[in-house]
Design goal:
mainly beta, Diaminopimelate Epimerase, Chain A, domain 1, 2 domains, 18-stranded mixed beta sheet, about 15% helix
Length: about 270
């Protein structure tokens, strides 16, 4: 059965999303419908879908973050669910603010990765506090692209990421296929390639699980900064350059993060999802 919903299209550092407005939780989207929405040539086109659901109408939201008014139901472009999205949550917050659904400067948003606190810093700029500490996982990974191999570090932020330091990001070539990880994480992982540019400044490219190479990844920027800090343990603030712009990451004493960056709305309308 087709679904008709109002939508907003937006991006954070060119990591783009379709925000579906479904506060009463009437649309139980299938993976096929999410893939249709995200298809660049036959749908609206996006890196992922963010469904706005009132927390009290969504059981998972009530369990995870009962104090938040809204829950962010995040789906990757391939239809799979994910814990959190650092760029997406800024776009999600921007939609709530623009529509008057959130009127405080600081408010909570529920995600599968927990409660996230968002603060509006300007008309289109937001800070997101990720309360969970970075959690290393695995004993290291071989990251393989074509004939090249790097050693990667696994870290949950709260999504799983594997971060590899490289000398030259451009030498990677196009990341059309997912980098191979050995051992392979059971739930997959985003893979970040990070170049150290200057003290407190890094550049990053990312291949996101369920999506492909994207212009930016907010939780990936946090993971990248955390791994880079292993080289500069006294540094807590980082600029992360991504193809779509740059993000700011602050790493706190408990290894939680604050992610700062823009959010932009580019289109609004109503979509009929087959």
């Amino acid at each position: 059965m087709s679904v008709i919903l109002p939508f907003v299209k937006g991006h954070g550092t060119h990591n783009d999303f379709i925000v579906l407005l479904d506060p009463d939780n009437n649309a139980d989207l299938t993976p096929e419908q999410v893939r249709w929405l995200c298809a660049r040539h036959s749908g609206l086109g996006a890196d992922g879908v963010l469904r706005v659901v009132e927390t009290q109408s969504y059981a998972a939201g009530r369990d995870v973050c009962p104090g938040a008014r809204y829950f962010m139901d995040y789906r990757n472009a391939d239809g799979t669910t994910a814990e959190m999205c650092g760029n997406g949550i800024r776009v999600f917050a921007h939609v709530l603010v623009r529509r008057g659904w959130e009127t405080n400067d600081t408010f909570a948003i529920g995600t599968r990765g927990g409660c996230m606190e968002v603060t509006q810093l300007g008309s289109d700029r937001y800070a997101v506090h990720l309360p969970a500490s970075a959690d290393p996982f695995g004993d290291g990974f071989d990251v393989v692209v074509a004939d090249s191999t790097w050693r990667g570090v696994g870290v949950l932020v709260p999504n799983p990421h594997v971060v590899a330091l490289v000398v030259d990001l451009e030498a990677l070539g196009p990341l059309r296929e997912a980098p191979r990880l050995d051992p392979s994480p059971s739930e997959g992982a985003n893979v970040e390639f990070v170049e150290l540019r200057a003290p407190g400044r890094i550049a990053m490219r990312v291949h996101e699980r369920g999506v492909g190479e994207t212009q930016s990844c907010g939780t990936g920027a946090c993971a990248a900064a955390w791994v880079a800090r292993l080289r500069e343990p006294a540094r807590s603030e980082w600029i992360v350059e991504v193809p779509g712009g740059h993000l700011e990451v602050m790493i706190h004493g408990d290894d939680s993060f604050t992610l700062i960056g823009p959010a932009e709305i580019v289109a609004e309308g109503v979509v009929t999802i087959p």
